[in-house]
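Milestone 3.1: sequence recovery, worked example.
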């Protein structure tokens, strides 16, 4: 709910470049809210609201004042001091800032490289020697020596799979012998992707390092990217217990469904009736489109991509999740770079490739911002660092007072103090930097530290650099506060206020009724004669198994049965009026004929609160919220400047 709420808040805050003169439109107690914000938000929401009444400026002002009242209440309660709120706001700001901390030239180069790779899929195996990014020099050297030994064995012609099985520390190696299958760009960490795409088929790479450790990758095949595919499927879930009878029943069910498809019955209808993938059965079994390596089942992917003709249906097959039948809906080839550019730019920013962009940005910021270094203090710091740095045993100097002071003045207004740089030097010992002599190493670290400080300064001042960034952050901040307030005042209260909830349910119990319900067996067939025979058997009180044995013969599935307790508006039940116990008449819907056996009729009755608790809580929340703004208007003093509001109206309606 939190992320949905944040998304809805964000949707209203897309910049449109509208600028206005800033005047106080209304006050809440002593806090002023200005016309420019009201106009900006109104224009952003204009195309999003479905209710035309909300476009009415008087009503919109009322909504806007209500929104600000809630935010004011959040501040009054001190919700902005909450550590979780502060962390979430800073996390969002950091994510948003990534859109501004960018270098377009480097980004374009990375996008073009990624697109070239996306058009290809490589199949690769790897050997991994684990070593942490911050491992000691001894552990790093030990891992490196091991991977070099592996490389030598491969050079001698040893079998890659056997060497992987013997030496690789990837936990999955026992199952896959190092085989990672096919993948394209963005499926692996960037250094691994580089090695895979720069190694010829049949060759193995030199050792290289990622955040996981040292790797050697062997490319075993390459092919044109198959793109993505949209399929529908019917799934019968694998039994949770290793019961042979249940396993056989599952297989029998999928085979019966497949037989009905072969007999010409509608795939979507069968998926709707029988598929146990509840997330897709209501949509005729249709899955979201996917590409190689995106599903947990490689078997499912291979079957899906093996289908060539639209509406082609696979034979039943088994995955680790159960039995499936797949139907091809559409194949989607790789799009052009123009069509994919926005998506690729987003992926590049989230990938390790972003480090290349960051380094380029730092170079530009050195030209944008000036800084001066305290040479004397810097020299003292240099002298305090010894060769112990290389063995990671250097300790920060005890005479901190002598080494304290302003080390850098950045852009004439930002002072950077020496302890920050000294701590940075200390932290970099784990990086295993080997630059010598020590003076050259400290010069190198200073430049890296300055790059970090320049980017941080730029990041900290994004609100001053970009008005739209400032607006989005401020409005998201209020949106987060409003969420926390709603959670405290409305949502949690509705769930924990048992007395209030029960009273609300008692006063509104007529809104929570069961429709007529029927305990039924639903018999379906595309053959009217078959369903007529099923009806005659039902009238003789024959069992489901008996009827199926009589009508499903010689491998043909002529009738299927679904049982359960359903309300009167369920699917085929809407075709019947005044259902009574016993066998019903035959009705046709689409290509199917149906007959029902009604075992029990449960008439309309009030639900208990436990039978509809979720709906009652939701309605009670809405009830509390509807009365909340009126209470806030009594708590805070609201004063609207009608003269300014008339000016706002004229400006918007021009």
């Amino acid at each position: 709910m939190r992320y949905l709420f944040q998304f809805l808040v964000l949707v209203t805050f897309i910049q449109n470049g509208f600028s206005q003169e800033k005047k106080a439109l209304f006050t809440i107690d002593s806090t002023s809210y200005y016309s420019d914000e009201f106009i900006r938000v109104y224009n952003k929401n204009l195309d999003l609201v479905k209710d035309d009444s909300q476009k009415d400026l008087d009503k919109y002002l009322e909504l806007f004042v209500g929104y600000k009242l809630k935010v004011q209440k959040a501040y009054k309660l001190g919700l902005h001091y909450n550590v979780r709120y502060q962390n979430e706001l800073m996390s969002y700001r950091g994510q948003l800032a990534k859109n501004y901390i960018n270098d377009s030239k480097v980004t374009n180069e990375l996008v073009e490289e990624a697109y070239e790779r996306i058009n290809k899929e490589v199949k690769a195996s790897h050997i991994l020697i684990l070593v942490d990014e911050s491992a000691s020099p001894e552990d790093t050297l030990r891992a490196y020596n091991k991977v070099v030994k592996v490389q030598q064995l491969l050079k001698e012609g040893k079998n890659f799979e056997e060497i992987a099985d013997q030496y690789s520390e990837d936990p999955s190696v026992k199952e896959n012998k190092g085989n990672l299958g096919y993948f394209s760009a963005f499926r692996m960490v960037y250094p691994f992707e580089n090695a895979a795409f720069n190694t010829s088929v049949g060759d193995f790479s030199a050792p290289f390092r990622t955040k996981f450790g040292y790797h050697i990758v062997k490319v075993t095949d390459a092919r044109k990217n198959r793109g993505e595919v949209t399929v529908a499927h019917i799934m019968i879930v694998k039994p949770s217990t290793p019961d042979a009878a249940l396993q056989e029943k599952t297989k029998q069910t999928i085979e019966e469904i497949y037989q009905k498809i072969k007999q010409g019955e509608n795939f979507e209808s069968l998926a709707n009736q029988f598929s146990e993938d509840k997330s897709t059965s209501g949509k005729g079994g249709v899955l979201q489109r996917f590409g190689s390596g995106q599903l947990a089942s490689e078997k499912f992917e291979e079957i899906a991509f093996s289908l060539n003709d639209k509406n082609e249906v696979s034979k039943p097959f088994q995955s680790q999740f159960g039995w499936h039948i797949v139907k091809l809906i559409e194949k989607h080839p790789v799009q052009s770079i123009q069509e994919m550019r926005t998506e690729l730019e987003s992926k590049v920013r989230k990938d390790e490739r972003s480090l290349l962009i960051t380094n380029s940005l730092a170079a530009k910021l050195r030209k944008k911002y000036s800084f001066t270094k305290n040479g004397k203090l810097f020299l003292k710091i240099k002298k305090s660092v010894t060769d112990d740095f290389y063995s990671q045993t250097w300790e920060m100097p005890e005479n901190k007072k002598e080494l304290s002071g302003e080390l850098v003045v950045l852009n004439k207004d930002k002072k950077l103090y020496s302890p920050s740089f000294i701590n940075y030097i200390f932290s970099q010992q784990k990086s295993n930097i080997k630059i010598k002599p020590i003076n050259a190493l400290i010069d190198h670290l200073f430049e890296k530290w300055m790059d970090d400080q320049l980017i941080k300064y730029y990041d900290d001042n994004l609100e001053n650099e970009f008005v739209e960034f400032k607006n989005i952050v401020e409005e998201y901040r209020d949106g987060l506060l409003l969420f926390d307030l709603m959670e405290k005042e409305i949502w949690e209260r509705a769930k924990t206020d048992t007395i209030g909830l029960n009273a609300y349910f008692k006063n509104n119990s007529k809104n929570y009724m069961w429709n007529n319900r029927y305990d039924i067996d639903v018999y379906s067939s595309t053959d009217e004669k078959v369903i007529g025979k099923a009806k005659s058997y039902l009238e003789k009180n024959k069992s489901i198994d008996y009827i199926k044995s009589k009508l499903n013969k010689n491998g043909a599935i002529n009738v299927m049965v679904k049982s359960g307790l359903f309300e009167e508006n369920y699917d085929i039940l809407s075709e019947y009026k005044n259902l009574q116990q016993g066998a019903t008449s035959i009705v046709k819907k689409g290509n199917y004929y149906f007959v029902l056996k009604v075992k029990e009729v449960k008439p309309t009755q009030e639900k208990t609160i436990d039978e509809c608790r979720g709906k009652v809580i939701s309605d009670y929340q809405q009830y509390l919220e509807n009365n909340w703004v009126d209470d806030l208007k009594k708590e805070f003093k609201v004063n609207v400047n009608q003269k300014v509001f008339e000016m706002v109206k004229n400006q918007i309606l021009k």
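The longest helix spans residues 467-496. The two ends are 39 Å apart (CA to CA).
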